[in-house]
Amino acid sequence: MRYNKIRKMDISNGPGVRTSIFVQGCTFNCKNCFNPETHDFRGGKEFTEETIEKILDLSSKDYIVGLSILGGDPMHPKNLEETTKLAKAFKKRFPEKNIWLWTGFQYEDVEDKEILNYIDVLIDGKYIDELHNPTLKWKGSSNQRVIDIRKTKQKKKINEGKLVSIIEKSPNRIEPKCQYYNICGGCNTEHISYNKSVIYKKEIVKNIFNKYCNMNIEPSIIYDANNTYNYRNKITLRIKNGKLSLVGDTLINIDYCYLVNNNINEVIKLLNSICLDGVNEVVIRGTDDIMVIIKGDINSSSIISILDGKVNSIFINNIKVYGNDHIIINVGIYSYAVYADSFFQVNTNMIDKLYNKVLEYAGTGNKLLDLYCGSGTIGIYLAHNFNTVIGIEQNKDAIKGANLNKKINNIHNISFICKQVSEINQIESNVVVVDPPRSGLDNTIMNKIMNSNIDKLVYVSCNPITLSRDINILKNKYNLVDITLYDMFPNTNHVESVCLFKIK
């Protein structure tokens, strides 16, 4: 990330005297934007750990009541990781001071982002020049909202309870295998017999569609009852007392996780044999090949000595210190290169089942457009059914992997473009596959879909709530022909959906 400027004392952006940072980079390009110089991601100065320390030092003055984060857009995917880091560090240092943040995204599109755990007030929405009103406080146009995040969260009509005791056990209740069950929250349905848990997931999706879309559906659900443990190819861990820890209500030291594969568990044991004080986060991913990604302050030689010959790649603070710059994960007849920062489905056993349904829904044709293509896995899987496949993805690591993957799998009719999906000019394809993040389709790409000539849309979703939101828009032009659920995440609440839409 880069930033444009830091104001030591700002009285214009939020109440009281504040420290403000204007991040660099925005794709909304609002007409008559107040800060057009912040649009270019290449402008400004590099944002570093020293930048965070500078802001914290400036904010330590007694007269500074809070931090304002503006832009550019602090919640653009290219900026989000660093602005989250800044907000987290600020709240840790100054829990009594507030953070205000301005973004062109709407709250509903970003409400699942970690940064909102640290933000007190969010000003959301694009600046619309036609709605400009100079009398408005803290915002430029009347469509924008000033949202008290804490109050917003409190207003959710959801009450959470904590289990005190079981008076009478359900016949579907079983004894969880994991000793950390009900502590970390990772395997939160492990107490339900597996065959009943998939029915439970199906009912959740049915209820969501009924409530939010006014649709009565009866989806099928595909699952693998023989692989409900040790299926994950990725885990993210923190550190407590120098040892690896799961993130629950509190940090919980672990030596073994029932959800990840045994090769990852072996690496967990090895890393726990040394002191990891100074490390902030450890990500372990892979199946046969294993990659370890470490963030924090630790000597690389100690990590390499303990993992030498046991893993294929080691990254420390985004720098490769050992082995290859990628790992290979095999799915059926295909092999995929996965880089440190690229997305890959976590349940390797179920990927081919999911992709076969996408293949069935997409059918055959001249041209396939694969939006949010990641490492190109879906596009490569479908390539033999189309003359041309084009994949769009913003993550550079993912695109690097996608281009390598088409070579590994000897696929010649596919090309990948590194750019924001929302930045494409128009959609010129009769068949489109979308696999967006949990926040679903953003407004820009949704508008382009609704103004396109797409005959068939295949939507892969990991979040039924945002999927139902998007269906409410899509159904104005498209029929939801079929939906199939996939239990990609056994022993958890999560479920994957694959939907087929056809133009009316």
Structure summarized in a few sentences:
With 504 residues, this protein is α/β, with parallel strands linked by helices. The chain is built from twelve helices and 24 strands.
Essential attributes:
504 residues, alpha/beta, TIM Barrel, Rossmann fold, 3 domains, 24 strands, 26% helix, globular
The end-to-end distance, rounded to whole angstroms, is 43 Å
What does the average pLDDT come to? 91
What's the multimeric state? single chain
What would you give as the CATH superfamily of the largest domain? Vaccinia Virus protein VP39
Number of helices: 12
CATH architecture of the largest domain: 3-Layer(aba) Sandwich
Enumerate the spans where pLDDT stays under 50 for 5 or more consecutive residues: none
Principal-axes shape call: globular
How many domains would you count in the coordinates? 3
SSE-based structural type: alpha/beta
CATH-defined topology of the largest domain: Rossmann fold
Strand content: 25-35%
Could you give the count of β-strands?
A: 24
Largest sheet geometry? 8 strands, mixed
